[in-house]
Structures are given as C-alpha cells and as structure tokens.
Design a protein that fits this description.
The chain has 617 residues and is of the alpha+beta class. It has 20 helices and 19 strands. The radius of gyration is 34 Å and the shape is extended.
Length: 617
C-alpha cells in the first residue's frame, strides 16, 4: 500500500463517519452485506468471514481502495447485512443475491449464452459465415455454445476447401485477392470455376463441418476418393482431394500443439495494468482445446481480489465444470470456491498452480493471450504486458508494476559523487521523468549513504508536493546493487511511512545482470529470457544515465580547474566564461577583446586567460 494517509476523496466525510459507526456495531461473524444508494438500490454485494472487520474497511482510509471502490463508497447511503452460519453459506448466498440483483459495482460477466451458428448464405454463390442468430436468410448449422469453436470451424472449412471469405459477386469477373496467391482460396472471382463445381465444394464443406468430429473417417473417405479419381485418370480432381487431405492434416498438427495431457480441464490466467485486468479462460475437453474466452475487468486491486469474485461469477451459470482448474495464482482461501464447485458439479474440483512442465506451458500460453488482449487497452504490445506480469510473478507483487523507478550511484574515488533516477512507465522508459542528484550530505565514496540520501530527498519532494516530477509514487523500486543498498534504503522508507516493493539488481564479476536481490535472498532471472532482458535493460539504462551525469560534472570540474589556475580567475569568473562561450574550444579561439567583453571580465583578466591558453605566443 502506498503511503500518504487521507480519506476517500469522493465521499462525504460526515456520511463516512455515520456508516463507520454503524459498521462498528456489526458482529464478528460470517455474513453477506448489501451496499445501497440513496434510492435504496443495491449497488454492491459482498461476503465476509467477519462482517465487522470487512465492512468497516470501506469507511476508513480511502487510499487502500481502488478508484472503482472509492466511487462505490461515495454512493453508499446505507447498508444491510445477513448473518450466516458459515463463510461457505455466505458464499452461496452472495452468489444467489448477485444473480438476482445484478449490482452495478460487482464483477458481472456477460454470459455468452446467445448461441452461435455456422451460416451458409442463400445466394447464387453461397458463402460459409458465422452468425449469432438465425434472423437472416440462409441455412444454419448449430447451435453451438462456443463462438470460438464456430469461428475456428468456419475458418478451417474455408481453408480446407479453399472457399472465399469475401463479399464479392462472383458473377462478375475480377482480379483475385491475396488469399488466392497464397493458396487459401480457389478464387471463383476469376470466372474460371463453374457454378456447379463451386456448389459441390460448398456442399462438401458443409458435410465436413457436420461430421468433422470423426476426422479419421473423413480422411479415409477422402483418400479413397482420391485413389479412385487417379485410377480413372481424373488427375485434377485427385489433386484437389490431395490438397484437402493435406490441409486437414496440417490443421490437425496445429491442434496437437495445444493439447492437454488431462482429458478435461480449464486453464485460467490474468494480466494486469494498473487497476485494469484481463482474464483469459482456455477450455480443454477430451484433451483438445474446445473454447477460449477473455474478460476485461476494471477497478481490480490484485489477483486475490479478482479471482475471489471472478471464479464464482464465471462458474455460477455453467454446468460443464471440469475436475481440474489450472490457475496462475495460489491461495488457500480458494478452498471455499473448490467446495462450492465440487457440490455444484457433483464431483471433486481442484485448483492447481503448476510450476513447470506441460501444464506450466499451457498456463504461460493463457497468460500471454491475456496480456495480448489487455495490450489494446493500455496502448502497449502484448510482449510488454507479458513481461510486466511476469516480473510481478517473479517478485511476488500483487499487480504488474506500471511505474518502475531505478537508481544508481556514480563517482570517481568519491569525487563528483552523483546519482541517477530513471522511470519506466508501462514497460517503456519515460525520459521526461528522469532525475539527477548531486550528493550533498558528505564528501567521499559511500554508495550506501549515497543511495539513502537520494531516496530520502526523492520522498521528501513527494511529501512537499511542489515538484510534479516527484508527485507520483512508483509501484516498484530497483536499486543498482544488493543487500547493502537495500538495507540502507529500508529505514528511509520507514521514515517517510511509505511501503513499496524494494529490490536490488545484482551484477556478476563481468558487470552483467545476474539476479534480483530481495529480503529472502537472490532471485535468479536468467532462465526467464523476457524478464532477464527487461531487468538488464533497466540496469543498463540507469547506469548509462548516472555515469553520463558523472562524466559531465567531472568534465566541467576539469575545465573549471584549468581556468581557475589562471591568475585573477576564480570560480565565479570561470563559471561565467563557460556560460558565455559554452566550451573551452570557444574560449581558446576568442581574442583578448572578446574575452574582456564576457560578463564579469576586465582587460587584465582577459589578457591573463589569453596568455595562459596560448603559451606558445
């Protein structure tokens, strides 16, 4: 939790006080609470193991809440509670009440119960498409529960039978599109395919869709037809059948890439950016991927809060519940959800969080899909979303870090001791937020004291609120160094009452990133290529920025020392000359008259500088 204190910025403090007083009189027993607005409308329903503890949290300090919860609390005029005998009973009641009332601030998933269909249009040249209803004219295959399956099936049929997916009128001859040139469509638009042959191909595709579950039988039938066509010297027909067989086998190989060793399971993973999340669900039945869905959810604090609601909402209206649910988050509190799903389905249901092997690969694939979908909302690539969520997993963070600040110290034997602060926002460098620091509190070389001073000054500026560049707290702090730097900075965080994830970036003997240092020891990252590349990039960038500032100051110091060695030129005149002429090269090129015209200079001082810089004269 970020420090700073304060109450809910949206709510009336007097109303909060009234509601908190009421909440303080609640019992420490399980139950369900119903938040209501001024019209008496239920706007949020939740369950609690101890009602008093849970409900009072809403009406205290607002900084711990997401923006969505703050808005909800600001609209609460009253609340009611229902006592339950157990937390499990509260879970059942909560789910039932949410389904009945559909409160505004609960996670409400759009249940895709609207069946999907494969439609064969009624045209002179019919086309195979997908549809959500049977309102339009055409022949329909279905209904199907999964829109994903419908889309995949229609795409496969078009690819196998080389049918068009465009809206062209094939009675008019036109140039073929790219699909023809890459072998995905026979291009009836060219006017070279008789309509009767096209209709026969469409009918064959429809038969394949209807009986496609038994692919082995379908393939055997196609092979027999191909052999018969070749025997009858119908080589063109045999070639088309050969291509269809090859296309089916290619699709089967693609399907085998994403298979589960378990006959029936759901794989669920999520990606976060700030308070926005995407949950991806991949469904396996009979070892094959049979459905894939994603859900965009706003106003989520962390994975625990997300899944505690999402899992119940997602499975509440589903009857096909597998015995195994693979999840990218491990939490003992999910045992209640396991119990509820087991009773609902009539068989044992287990949540598992694999750490390696095929199941971990499926989970990673699911997380990658979630990140890809979320990337559109965050205006970032799926790769950037994936690595931020992977960093969160490696470091045990609740959320993917949107703002990362990294610090490094640079000096030469204690001289020109400086530090650099860089900022990464949503996975990319935010150079406008970079800051430089000159160490002020001591002279000499002490990286630990230097790091402590820099962080102290950074958070002091945050508390002042005068510099916009320091007004935002990071989600993650990375220090160039290990336990020593971290030990020096922890008291600084405590001094400012700020709780933030703090880690070090450790290098090996060749000055290459080796690991991330944490309170529990070093976290190896080399085995995770994306995370390793990302952290290495941050460490290299903060080092470049800090050492660049150090070299700049050292160079100026050397220039100043060259000028201050001249009689009559002190630090003030040397600085004035450098400001006026910009470089030593320009000062050397100036004649005595030009030198004497510089601010703070006179004729004698100018002559001294000119002679000192031109000893050959």
């Amino acid at each position: 939790m970020q420090g700073g204190g304060g109450v809910n910025q949206y709510a009336d403090p007097r109303q909060l006080a009234v509601l908190k007083t009421k909440a303080n009189h609640l019992p420490l027993t399980p139950g369900v609470y119903l938040m209501k607005d001024q019209r008496g409308q239920i706007i949020y329903i939740g369950k609690a193991k101890a009602l008093k503890n849970r409900v009072t949290q809403y009406f205290g300090s607002g900084n711990q809440h997401t923006e969505k919860v703050k808005r909800m609390v600001s609209n609460v005029a009253d609340f009611e509670t229902i006592l339950c005998d157990s937390e499990f009973e509260a879970l059942i009641l909560e789910n039932s009440l949410i389904k009945q009332n559909q409160p505004k601030y609960n996670i409400l998933l759009k249940d895709d119960k609207g069946y999907s269909y494969i439609r064969v249009t009624k045209e002179r040249w019919p086309k195979i498409t997908t549809a959500k209803s049977t309102d339009q004219e055409g022949n329909y295959i279905g209904p199907y529960n999964s829109s994903y399956i419908v889309k995949e099936t229609a795409d496969e049929a078009r690819k196998i039978f080389k049918l068009p997916d465009c809206g062209r009128d094939f009675d008019r001859v036109s140039k073929p599109c790219l699909n023809y040139h890459i072998g995905l469509c026979d291009a009836p638009c060219r006017g070279k395919i008789p309509r009767e042959e096209y209709l026969a191909t469409v009918n064959a595709a429809v038969e394949f869709i209807k009986h496609g579950e038994n692919e082995d039988t379908a393939l055997e039938a196609l092979r027999e037809r191909m052999a018969a066509a070749a025997e009858n010297l119908q080589f063109e027909v045999a070639a088309k059948l050969r291509d269809r067989i090859a296309a089916i086998e290619k699709i089967r190989q693609k399907q085998k890439v994403v298979r589960s060793s378990y006959k029936s399971e759901d794989v669920i993973a999520s990606a976060f950016i700030g308070e926005n999340a995407c949950v991806e669900v991949i469904v396996f039945r009979n070892h094959r991927l049979t459905d894939k869905q994603h859900f965009m959810i706003e106003g989520v604090a962390d994975r625990e809060a997300l899944y505690s609601e999402f899992l119940v909402r997602y499975y509440s209206d589903r009857d096909d519940i597998p015995g195994r649910i693979v999840l990218d988050y491990e939490n003992e509190d999910f045992s209640l959800t396991e119990q509820w799903l087991s009773e609902k389905s009539g068989h044992k249901v287990l949540f598992v969080c694999p750490k390696q092997g095929e199941q971990k690969e499926l989970l990673d694939l699911c997380a990658k899909n979630a990140a890809e979908n979320l990337s559109e909302k965050a205006d970032r690539t799926g790769k950037e979303m994936s690595v931020l969520n992977e960093i969160a997993r490696l470091l045990g963070l609740k959320n993917a870090p949107r703002r990362i600040e990294a610090y490094d110290i640079s000096n030469t034997a204690g001289r020109e001791n400086v530090a650099g602060m860089i900022v990464y926002q949503d996975g990319r460098p935010l150079k406008s937020a970079y800051k430089r620091f000159k160490i002020k509190t001591f002279i000499g070389q002490d990286d630990f004291r230097s790091m402590a001073e820099v962080l102290d000054r950074r958070f002091t500026e945050y508390e002042k609120g005068e510099d916009e560049g320091f007004s935002t707290l990071p989600d993650l702090i990375l220090l160039d160094g290990g336990q020593g730097q971290m030990s020096a900075v922890r008291p600084v965080l405590a001094k400012h009452h700020i709780e933030l994830p703090l880690f070090g970036m450790v290098k090996d003997s060749k000055h290459r990133t080796r690991a991330i240092s944490s309170e529990g020891g070093d976290i190896a990252i080399k085995s995770n290529r994306a995370a390793f590349t990302f952290i290495t990039g941050i460490q290299d960038e903060v080092h470049r920025f800090a050492i660049g500032y150090h070299k700049n100051r050292r160079s100026k110091a050397m220039l100043n020392s060259e000028l201050t060695a001249v009689p009559g030129i002190g630090k003030a005149r040397a600085a004035a000359l450098l400001r006026h002429f910009k470089t030593m090269k320009a000062i050397r090129a100036a004649n005595p008259e030009e030198l004497s015209a510089a601010p703070g200079m006179n004729k004698a001082a100018a002559e001294n500088v000119y002679r000192a810089l031109h000893p050959e004269l």
